[in-house]
Design brief:
Blueprint: E1 5-9, H1 13-24, E2 30-34, H2 62-78, E3 83-84, E4 88-94, H3 102-112, E5 116-118, H4 121-124, E6 132-138, E7 142-143, H5 145-159, E8 162-165, E9 170-176, E10 179-184, E11 187-191, E12 193-196, H6 202-208, E13 216-227, E14 235-240, E15 245-250, E16 255-260, E17 265-271, H7 281-286, H8 294-304, E18 312-324, H9 327-330, E19 336-338, E20 346-350, H10 357-368
Parallel strand pairs: 1-2, 1-12, 2-8, 4-14, 12-20
Antiparallel strand pairs: 3-7, 4-6, 5-6, 9-10, 10-11, 13-16, 13-17, 13-18, 14-15, 15-16, 19-20
The protein binds flavin-adenine dinucleotide.
Domain FAD dependent oxidoreductase: 5-318
Organism: Cryobacterium glaciale
Protein name: FAD-binding oxidoreductase
Length: 369
């Protein structure tokens, strides 16, 4: 496929990183990235928990945990300037309702080769001993998504041959002889290869292009942006493994995100193409719930870590989170890679988390080499 042109629909982390891969590794002549927002990386690649996964989060899916371990070093090396590791990250195991216990968590970490150590007494004392059975200090950094965007845009400018067109929505894709044409806000664009990296909106494009809907599950999510006092300001806390909370540094705003398995999703819905009505991710984001769920999250946090009472909500971040339907049960994050999806050379991809990008790049290399 050397010397070909490609259009990538979606200028999130995936779309930009794939554009570089097509140009630098797969010899594509030119790549056009279409992004509907006025700026790239404004959607899920900005609104997320900023965790560079090292596997700990997935005790129910050994494959996802293992792939996180494999991909982490690549991500840390490639995006070193965006990595934030100046905080202590604790994973606490809840004594009730957790699907794992301390011993199982240790065995799981040993199995995937992820380091951990018992939290020091100072940190242990933060937790309510009736609610938490064990606490571990782990190695799992965060990323700054704005720095990530700068790194990618600088590389795109340096490589050449990649145009990024913002405020440019792709409406549909159709066959045009041996090529594909993409109808967008700025006109009709043609290329041999089209890659859809539209994340939560993947099926909007599939519907308008009259190709099959891919079964996914969406959640309208709210993460509270909170200010914490020391020593929590220099820490991350994740309570495992069930309906608990997580506090992660959110480097771009110099605060933390507070998310909660029970309260962060305001509602969830499946999209399989067979429902009589399926809400569109775009319309859900345009009509947000009036009420933040911060109070509910906060009340639950205090049951586990009473000293977090001084936490203050500053804002909330909203986004539609999309996972493959099969991820529902085991909380896994496999990639979606669908080449020739309904149209020859239309490839739809979706990565459940940022570091999965390397699995997607491997698939692209095999397919378009
Ligand atoms: C609440 C939440 C927390 C998360 N936490 C983490 C975490 O801690 N760590 C982690 O690794 N991952 C996390 N994730 C997952 C991660 O954010 C996503 O896997 C990743 O951002 C997906 O990147 P993307 O480029 O595919 O999606 P996006 O960044 O959403 O990019 C898709 C782009 O396509 C554009 N687009 C859509 N349709 C069209 C169209 N028709 N025409 C033109 N442009 C279009 C959109 O505007 C968007 O910019 C989280 C996600 C959410 C929602």
């Amino acid at each position: 496929m050397r010397g070909r042109d490609a259009i990538i629909i979606g200028g999130g982390f995936y779309g930009l990183r794939i554009a570089l891969h097509l140009r630098q590794k797969l010899g594509f002549r030119s790549v056009l990235v279409l992004e509907r927002e006025p700026q790239v990386m404004q959607r899920a690649s900005y609104v997320n928990q900023a965790r560079v996964h090292n596997g700990y989060h997935y005790p129910r899916s050994i494959l996802t945990a293992y792939r996180s371990r494999v991909n982490l070093p690549y991500f840390l090396t490639e995006f070193a300037d965006a990595i934030v590791d100046n905080f202590d990250h604790y994973y606490a195991i809840a004594s009730r309702l957790s699907r794992t216990n301390g011993r199982q968590f240790e065995l799981f970490c040993d199995r995937i080769g992820a380091t951990y150590e018992p939290a020091e007494p100072r940190a242990m004392n933060w937790f309510n001993p009736q609610m938490v059975e064990s606490v571990y200090l782990v190695t799992e950094p965060a990323f700054n998504s704005v720095t990530l965007r700068s790194i990618l845009l600088d590389r795109i400018a340096a490589v050449g041959g990649i145009s990024v067109s913002t405020s440019d929505e792709a409406f549909h894709v159709e066959q045009a002889g041996s090529a594909l044409s993409v109808h967008s806000s700025t006109g009709i664009h043609k290329a041999e290869v089209v890659i859809s990296a539209t994340y939560s909106r993947l099926n909007d494009l599939h519907r308008s292009s009259q190709v099959a809907v891919i079964p996914v599950q969406h959640e309208l999510t709210e993460m509270a942006l909170v200010e914490l006092e020391s020593p929590f300001a220099e820490s991350g806390i994740t309570v495992m493994d069930g309906p608990f909370f997580s506090l992660m540094p959110y480097p771009d705003r110099g605060m933390h995100t507070l998310s909660h398995v029970r309260y962060t999703p305001h509602h969830r819905w499946r999209e399989s193409g067979t429902e009589p009505f399926s809400p569109r991710p775009s319309t859900e984001l345009e009509s947000l719930p009036e009420k933040s769920r911060f109070r509910e999250m906060y009340a639950d946090v205090l049951r586990y870590v009473p000293a977090l009472a001084t936490m203050r909500q500053v804002d909330s971040l909203w986004e539609v989170k999309t996972v493959l339907t099969k991820s529902d049960k085991d909380d896994s994050r496999p990639i979606l890679f669908k080449p020739d999806h309904g149209l020859k050379n239309l490839t739809t991809i979706m990565g459940g988390k940022l570091d999965n990008v390397y699995d997607v790049l491997d698939e692209l290399s095999s397919y378009y080499a």
